[in-house]
Amino acid sequence: MTPAAPDMTILAVLAPFAAAAIAPFAVRILKHNAAWPLAIVPFLIFVHFAGYLAGVSAGETYTIARDWVPQYNVSLSFFIDGLSTLFALLISGIGTFIILYAGGYLKGHPQQGRFFSFLFLFMGAMLGLVTADNLITLFIFWELTSITSFLLIGFDHLRAASRRAALQALLVTGGGGLALLAGFLLIIHATGQTEMSAVLTSGDTLRNSALYLPIFLLVLGGAFTKSAQFPFHFWLPNAMEAPTPVSAFLHSATMVKAGVYLLMRVHPVLGGTELWTTVLPVFGGITLLVGTILAVRQTDLKLMLAYTTVASLGLLVMLTGTSSDRALEGAVLYLFAHSLFKGALFMVAGTIDHEAGTRDVTKLGGLRKAMPITFAAAALAGLSMAGLPPFIGFIAKEVLYYGTWGLPQGALALTIVAVIGNALMLVIAAGVAVKPFFGPETHTPKHAHEGPVLLWAGPVVLSLAGLAAALMANTTGALFIGPMLSSLKGVQTTVELVLIPPYISAPLILSIITVALGVVLFLQLDRLRGLIATILATIGWGPDRGFDQVVAAIVRVSAALTRVLQGGKMQTYMMLTFAMTGAALLLPQVLTGSFPAVPAWPEFRFYEWAVILIAVMGLVAVLLAKTRLTAIISLGIQGFAVATLFMLFGAPDLSFTQFMIETLSVVVLALVMTRLNLSPRDHRPLGSKIVTGVIAASVGAGFALTLMAITQQPFDARLSEFFAEFSRPIAHGRNIVNVIIVDYRGFDTLGEIAVVVLTGLAVLGLIRVKTKSDKAEPAQTTTRAAKAAQKTVEAR
Fold first, then answer.
1. Number of CB atoms found within 10 A of residue 696's CB
2. pTM value?
């Protein structure tokens, strides 16, 4: 179905890119207050996509398409359903408060305008990613998120840590993006469709395809790297080198959930298989445990939250991998809840750092009186993250426990993993929302006080939204969760959420166990942190260090390969060039066995045989030449023989050009050889001569077979007829060959002339250098003779 105003949707998706161009000028005029008018852009985008809620709740989907690169089937197309609508609302809604927060957080920063530009570019890339319908367009937006996150993470580019974190994020997510591109190309090949909406209607085509395994692995490569799944989890905590507005946006609603979005998007056509329900839960569960354990070790508020984001992404992947209806509902609901409480808590951590001067939780305490509004927002968001009522996080935890407990296979293992992970989440939630605000007041680097409205507006609204979503659970399920779950399952689904469980059930008991375990662990937080730190120190190695080792190994291998391939010897360069040429020509034919048929031997006249005999004699002369100068002159015989054949077969223009080129080449090369001090003989060993001989033979055979294959194809005369018809009326030339060279191939001919001119200049330079050295040689000889005579006199 097409919406009434498709152009408005395209405008909404592309609006952040326009805001990125305006932002620096707005900051120059309004300073940090530019955040207020700039925040109108994502707010209007939010309002626009909110208009789709009624339709997608009723099961409607919308497609909007405009031609972009039609010759490659690439269109600027967008697909709006429950999944893309919820993501677009989260990106634009949370993005509104991120823009406001950035205005207060970077107040007075000389590069605040540039920061706003990067933030809007990032927002636009994510909006395009979650709404794109064309697979190639989706990939373009996917990689744009990697590029813009690189700019944001490395915003403070004068710090080595920021540069390293930005490069690490770009390499990991960019590499996964290339894998995803290959997966998309295989999907297009397997289904014959370039639009995601069409692929989703292909049923079991991909599951039954012989390409399912490579498609699955390549799509997982893109999703796992983008959403920081083990063992690619290390880049996400390091991305905390970015300013806090970036961290809050990155972790709550945007890039890190792009991988989860992709897995949810392709679930109707790739999910449900044994491979899917094995790999995703295993890696998701490992990521959940690794993320929460590493989070407990941290004392930096942002790092504590960052590692819990890794854990949350693992939980989402684990639930999505089960392909169970109730587990999928839990995944959707937890994604929604996580976006609200994690965005709020990250902004709280940034506000504490901004107003108190530190993020170290061991150096904070008693801030609830100095920062009451921030404390209230932290408490509300922390309760939701801990999974306590009456917050949306509690409902999400109940539903996901329903999903894991009711699985036909692996229910106990996945439930235990979920309970341990959620208990440790409670520990971190209490560490962020309780530790800094309770206890005795501590001396902080800055006098702690409440921040301006730009800093606390976002945390307050998002934390209250988590409360409101739970209190209006039925509406939340109907408007947001149900449509998104329908997209995951591929069929229309209704969701009924309740805040208070109607009866005591396994999920409620599991929630009580989770809270009890979390409280016990929180009371032993310092001891637990020390234990984990000791274990990690004993292990010593980790994926983060492994990344550095891999990069260092790549650099060493590249340097060694460069020394071999770019060693400064022209002979090596030419040999490698011809070897690759021969391989490119021969290998496809050898591997496929598609050799051309041997043509019938033509009947030559006696003078044509004479020309061929001259060419063969020239070839023998080249091979037997004793000096390079003789070989060059003999090589000219080949060119003159070919030029003669052109003339005999009715191509006088081409023949004349060949005669001129051969004459010029022989004269120039002979002139250079006589001026340079080169060894007259070829002193290479026999093995080297054999290698170069084989390469030369392969190139010659490759060209011969290729030309034979081409000439055996049916002749397509359309181009010839075009030139014959239009050379006179368009180019005003009677000689078709000249018209082709001068008019139709004018730029190509200009390039060839430029090459010849540059070659002539290079030759002239070589001659002049040799001439100067010749002139200097007698003087040098005289000087040496004089010194020798002087030494003889002194000796006497």
1. 14
2. 0.81
